[in-house]
Amino acid sequence: MRFSAISLFAAGLVVTMAQDVGKVALCNDCWQLGTGAPTCSDNNYIHWGPEDGVDGECDDPPSVFDSPCEADSSSNIETPLGEGPYTPEPDCDANAENGTLMGTIVGLRSGGPGGGVFKYNCYKELDTFTNVCGFTYACNIYLICRQA
After folding, report:
1. I need a surface site. Which of 46, 88, 95, 108 has the fewest CB within 10 A?
2. 48: number of Cβ within 10 Å
3. Where is the signal peptide (predicted)?
4. pLDDT for 88-124, tens place per residue?
5. Cβ neighbours of 143 (radius 10 Å)
């Protein structure tokens, strides 16, 4: 687990907070309405939270990722530090090994002290989880974004 270099002082105690990471997942679900073939949908989501925490929640926002090597350049990604576009690495390869740098999210910090610029490096990640949000969603995490 990575920890923030910024400590918080509360009631004379020093508390070090874990940094949130973004887990980008492609989730799909299928449901049956009457007879015939089931109806299915695929959606990309991004979940921000502790790296060793939950992988996704029902209220996670859709992401603008099309794949680790493509993104909607006209849309920004919301992070805990502000919004910024995802930019794939020039040599991005969707078939890269786990842990390979795939791209970055860079933007201006919003609110709070310090201002300035933030940067997240996004790495190839292969993991799976399921989520029950009315339907059962099967999800494949394909990127994990950590503060640079």
Report:
1. 95
2. 17
3. 1-18
4. 999 999 999 999 999 999 999 887 666 789 999 999 9
5. 21
